[in-house]
Amino acid sequence: MKLVLAGGATIFVRMKTPVMILLLAVMMFGAPLWIRADESLWKKCTVSVTWKRRGDDATVTVTVKNGTKKTLTDPTVRVTFYDKDGKEVAADSKGYVATLRPGASKRMEARIWTSIPAEAASAKGAVDGGFFE
User: pTM of the prediction?
Assistant: First the structure.
């Protein structure tokens, strides 16, 4: 059996037929879940963040828009808070169980974020994980 690896390397493997069939089935149906996207796809996904302070906590709402031509599955969104000078004061990532078709946008959730520093003045979000199919 001939396997072509990432980067173009080719290896030849001798296997029994049932093992080879199982391996091919896993590669055909599971491959989209194993492929991590390149940076250009992540940059096409935009995240809007709105937040409202309530004492030391904040209610944070995240909306993701898939600007690619591929389906985005289970995105991980990173939210970063900045002070008035643009210095990062807090950040966190969270994974969501969701599927966004090409061009679709979805409000992920409104969550309570605890212990937001008093100097936080703005927040930005970015997709930094997930799978494209």
Answer: 0.68
Q: Of 56 and 22, which is predicted with more confidence?
A: 56
> Looking at the 3D structure of the chain, how many domains does it have?
2
Same domain, 57 and 78: yes
Q: Could you list the beta-strand ranges (E) of 9-133.
A: 10-12, 45-54, 57-66, 72-82, 88-95, 99-100, 105-113, 122-132
pLDDT digits (tens, 9 = 90+) for 31-43: 444 445 567 888 8
- In which domain, by residue range, is 24 found? 2-34
Helix (H) and strand (E) counts for the chain? 2, 9
- CA dihedral 33→38→40→43, nearest 10 degrees, is 60
